[in-house]
């Protein structure tokens, strides 16, 4: 099987993730979109590592995972603190400054 | 296993400026655990100031290091590649690091100032629900969140790695190291906590999106070149030799995605949407810090990526380089136009400064697109000058406050210029109704001025400030004039050199049409002068507005640090405006650049 198919798949997943971020209204779903983008990146990195026959891409994927985990920690903390204040996790409700 | 492990050799000495800052951040976390609560604040502030000062001192020492500057006698190589290019300590990297650390030092002074109200700008416990009994209790107990200082130091550490790395992976990690603390810090304002949380929320979601774009760009560049080391990417661009080396579209898309991530951090249009909201909602000292330092670090990283990639493209595929610069042209034009046009109609001083910062990102981009030694020099100088004026002006904003005669909270909410959340009771049925939804926090009464509230950010409240507080208004006017680029302030020299670099054009191709950008930049600056001067007129020639329904405006006294910071920023803005040549010469040395 052509390895480049995996690159195409990664691009599709990345696009789906980006679309999710831009179109969905629930903060958790938006956040999942970001995670999908990061995981699509991992797929691309691992595929390219295979194509090039070196390990750099696989190591990079681990770094991306660690960073994604750190982002989850901070991001969920912020989303939860907003939710506790407003009882809503909708992106549209967070608009005090649009006056 | 026949191979035995070979430990890498690390030139620790060149990492000292970064290690000092990050190490002190770690010590700061331990201080939170082991130092008694009374002493924590003093210890944290001292540590943070010492760390940034020490880091700046080591940068100054390294600046003259022969390995960094190259041996002038032999004309040898300059710059040190630590850990195979993970860190590149060259004059350019050191210069940006120096700018970041200097500005961070001044910003930490503002962050540490408790003013005459005896309160800093941060919530007693950021985790408490605004208006909850728990928050009230924390406030009465006088709890302070001193985690702010280690968080700032971590962010500074990330900002120092960001412009001084030759490896895209390290750049990505540094991007996160500088961003994650800033997301948290944005949510920690003592007053108007809903706005603050909202700012943090927007910053986080859009920031995470931008870093995902960045890392996918890194993946594409890796796919093209088989490496994430910028020097090696340059080799592949110039000479080929990988399976995808005949696909310039791959690397072009990758680089554009990387640039999108970086342009988000500098707040350039169309990636600027977060800037006004985050600058407005975040605690003002933090706004000053991130506006100045993030921009410096991100422009440093952007220059490094752009130079290496586009010089590589110039050798193999000039068309791709053209495309890259077309994209930058569009971004620079949009950024200048949006920054000045939308900035001109703002009524909130923090939002106005945010749009001004967007416009400045555009002006810096104009200098960068000039793409020559002169444009590197101009960028470093511009970043310093813009940062000084920004830290100083946000420091002034922290001192101009609203007052109320008595802690009647309903009245305060209705009139304090705070956006009263309309759907609050509907969307938060179980939130304590007696509490103050905006989290305005009346501080102890000051004898002559009633109760001091949050910052008076509406422009109308700044009327007559010149009479009330001439020194403060004078300093603020100076910063605004510098941002406007009026002669005898540093901003003039900065704009002059940036636009000059654009007019001169790229020194490799010769000529070019970048002078068009400089013309647009000058026109945009002229529009921007209008909104800066409007504030100055307001402060000096307009009578203070009648205290509407008991809400007045007062200027709280700094307890020292913020005043020092404002004074230093003002002095430097003046000195760099009148005698710019020593710093310009230093900046000219900073153009030495190793991929």
UniProtKB/TrEMBL annotation, chain A:
Gene Ontology terms for molecular function: NADH dehydrogenase (quinone) (non-electrogenic) activity; quinone binding
Catalyzed reactions per annotation: a quinone + NADH + 5 H(+)(in) = a quinol + NAD(+) + 4 H(+)(out)
Keyword Secreted included in the entry's annotation: no
GO biological process: one example: ATP synthesis coupled electron transport
Alphabetically ordered keywords of this record: Cell membrane, Membrane, NAD, Oxidoreductase, Quinone, Translocase, Transmembrane, Transmembrane helix, Transport
InterPro entries according to UniProt: NADH_UbQ_OxRdtase_chain4L/K (IPR001133), NUOK/Mnh_C1-like (IPR039428)
TM helices/strands, residue ranges: 6-23, 30-53, 59-83
Documented EC number(s): 7.1.1.-
Membrane topology: Multi-pass membrane protein
Domain of life per record: Bacteria
Localization (cell): Cell membrane; Membrane
Principal localisation: membrane
Keyword set includes Membrane: yes
Record's GO cellular component terms: NADH dehydrogenase complex; plasma membrane
PANTHER family: NADH DEHYDROGENASE SUBUNIT 4L-RELATED, NADH-UBIQUINONE OXIDOREDUCTASE SUBUNIT ND4L
Subunit structure: NDH-1 is composed of 14 different subunits. Subunits NuoA, H, J, K, L, M, N constitute the membrane sector of the complex.
HAMAP family: NDH1_NuoK (MF_01456)
Main function: NDH-1 shuttles electrons from NADH, via FMN and iron-sulfur (Fe-S) centers, to quinones in the respiratory chain. The immediate electron acceptor for the enzyme in this species is believed to be a menaquinone. Couples the redox reaction to proton translocation (for every two electrons transferred, four hydrogen ions are translocated across the cytoplasmic membrane), and thus conserves the redox energy in a proton gradient.
Family: Belongs to the complex I subunit 4L family.
Protein name in UniProt: NADH-quinone oxidoreductase subunit K
Classification lineage: Bacteria, Bacillati, Actinomycetota, Actinomycetes, Micrococcales
TrEMBL record, chain B:
GO MF term set: NADH dehydrogenase (quinone) (non-electrogenic) activity; NADH dehydrogenase (ubiquinone) activity; quinone binding
Cellular localization per UniProt: Cell membrane; Endomembrane system; Membrane
Documented EC number(s): 7.1.1.-
Primary localisation category: membrane
Keyword Glycoprotein included in the entry's annotation: no
Region listing for Disordered, in residue ranges: 422-441
GO cellular component: endomembrane system; plasma membrane
Signal peptide, first to last residue: none
Biological processes annotated in GO: ATP synthesis coupled electron transport
Membrane topology: Multi-pass membrane protein
Sequence ranges of Low complexity compositional bias: 422-435
Catalysed reaction, written as an equation: a quinone + NADH + 5 H(+)(in) = a quinol + NAD(+) + 4 H(+)(out)
Spans traversing the lipid bilayer: 12-31, 43-63, 92-112, 148-164, 170-189, 201-225, 245-264, 296-314, 326-345, 352-374, 380-400, 471-494, 514-541, 562-579
PANTHER family per record: NADH DEHYDROGENASE (PTHR22773)
Subunit details: NDH-1 is composed of 14 different subunits. Subunits NuoA, H, J, K, L, M, N constitute the membrane sector of the complex.
UniProt record similarity statement: Belongs to the complex I subunit 2 family.
Protein's job: NDH-1 shuttles electrons from NADH, via FMN and iron-sulfur (Fe-S) centers, to quinones in the respiratory chain. The immediate electron acceptor for the enzyme in this species is believed to be a menaquinone. Couples the redox reaction to proton translocation (for every two electrons transferred, four hydrogen ions are translocated across the cytoplasmic membrane), and thus conserves the redox energy in a proton gradient.
Name of the protein in its database record: NADH-quinone oxidoreductase subunit N
Gene source species: Cellulosimicrobium arenosum
Gene from which this protein is expressed: nuoN
């Amino acid at each position: 099987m052509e390895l480049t198919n995996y690159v195409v798949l990664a691009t599709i997943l990345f696009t789906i993730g980006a679309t999710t971020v831009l179109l969905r209204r629930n903060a958790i779903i938006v956040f999942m979109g970001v995670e999908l983008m990061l995981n699509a990146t991992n797929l691309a990195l691992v595929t390219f590592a295979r194509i090039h026959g070196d390990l750099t891409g696989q190591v990079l994927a681990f770094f991306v995972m660690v960073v994604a985990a750190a982002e989850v920690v901070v991001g969920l903390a912020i989303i939860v603190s907003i939710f506790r204040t407003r009882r809503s996790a909708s992106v549209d409700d967070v608009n005090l400054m649009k006056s | 296993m026949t191979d035995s492990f070979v430990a890498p050799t690390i030139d620790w000495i060149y990492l000292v400026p970064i290690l000092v800052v990050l190490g002190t951040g770690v010590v700061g976390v331990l201080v939170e655990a082991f130092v008694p609560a009374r002493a924590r604040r003093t210890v944290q502030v001292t540590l943070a100031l010492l760390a940034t000062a020490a880091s700046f001192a080591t940068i100054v020492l390294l600046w003259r290091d022969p390995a960094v500057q190259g041996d002038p006698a032999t004309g040898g190589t300059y710059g040190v590649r630590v850990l195979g290019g993970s860190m590149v300590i060259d004059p350019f990297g050191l210069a940006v690091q120096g700018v970041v650390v200097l500005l961070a030092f001044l910003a930490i002074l503002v962050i540490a100032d408790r003013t005459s109200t005896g309160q800093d700008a941060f919530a007693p416990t950021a985790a408490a629900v605004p208006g909850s009994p728990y928050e009230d209790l924390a406030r009465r107990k006088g709890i302070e969140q001193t985690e702010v200082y280690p968080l700032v130091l971590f962010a500074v550490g990330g900002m120092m790695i960001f412009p001084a790395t030759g490896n895209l992976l390290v750049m990505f990690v540094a991007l996160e190291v500088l961003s994650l603390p800033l997301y948290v810090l944005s949510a920690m304002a003592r007053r108007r906590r809903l706005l603050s949380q909202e700012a943090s929320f927007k910053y986080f979601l859009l920031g995470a999106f931008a870093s995902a774009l960045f890392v996918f760009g890194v993946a594409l560049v890796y796919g093209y070149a088989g490496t994430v080391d910028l020097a090696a990417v340059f080799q592949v661009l110039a000479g080929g030799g990988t399976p995808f080396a005949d696909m310039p579209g791959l690397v072009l898309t990758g680089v554009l995605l990387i640039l999108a991530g970086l342009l988000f951090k500098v707040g350039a249009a169309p990636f600027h949407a977060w800037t006004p909201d985050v600058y407005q909602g975040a605690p003002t000292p933090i706004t000053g810090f991130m506006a100045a330092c993030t921009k410096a670090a991100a422009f440093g990283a952007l220059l490094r990526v752009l130079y290496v990639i586009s010089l590589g493209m110039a050798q193999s595929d000039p068309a791709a380089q053209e495309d890259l610069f077309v994209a930058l042209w569009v971004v620079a034009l949009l950024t200048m136009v949006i920054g000045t046009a939308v900035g001109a109609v703002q009524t909130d001083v923090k939002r106005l400064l945010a749009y001004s910062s967007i416009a400045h990102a555009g002006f810096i981009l104009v200098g960068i697109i000039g793409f020559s030694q002169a444009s590197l020099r101009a960028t470093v100088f511009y970043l310093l000058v813009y940062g000084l004026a920004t830290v100083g002006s946000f420091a002034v904003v922290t001192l101009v406050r609203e007052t109320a005669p008595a802690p009647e909270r309903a009245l305060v909410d209705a009139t304090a210029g705070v956006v009263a959340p309309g759907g609050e009771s509907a969307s938060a049925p179980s939130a304590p109704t007696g509490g103050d939804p905006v989290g305005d926090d009346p501080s102890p009464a000051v004898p002559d001025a009633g109760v001091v509230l949050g910052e008076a950010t509406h422009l109308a409240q700044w009327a007559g400030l010149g009479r009330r507080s001439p020194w403060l208004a004078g300093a603020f006017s100076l910063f605004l004039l510098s941002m406007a680029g009026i002669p005898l302030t540093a901003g003039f020299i900065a704009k002059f050199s940036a636009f000059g670099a654009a007019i001169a054009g790229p020194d490799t191709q010769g000529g070019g049409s970048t002078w068009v950008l400089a013309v647009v930049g000058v026109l945009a600056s002229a529009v921007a002068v209008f909104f800066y001067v409007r504030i100055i007129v307001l402060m000096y020639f307009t009578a203070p507005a009648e205290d509407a329904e008991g809400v007045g405006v007062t200027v709280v006294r700094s307890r020292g640090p913020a005043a020092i910071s404002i004074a230093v920023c003002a002095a430097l803005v003046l000195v760099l405006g009148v005698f710019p040549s020593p710093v310009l010469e230093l900046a000219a040395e900073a153009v030495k650049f190793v991929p």
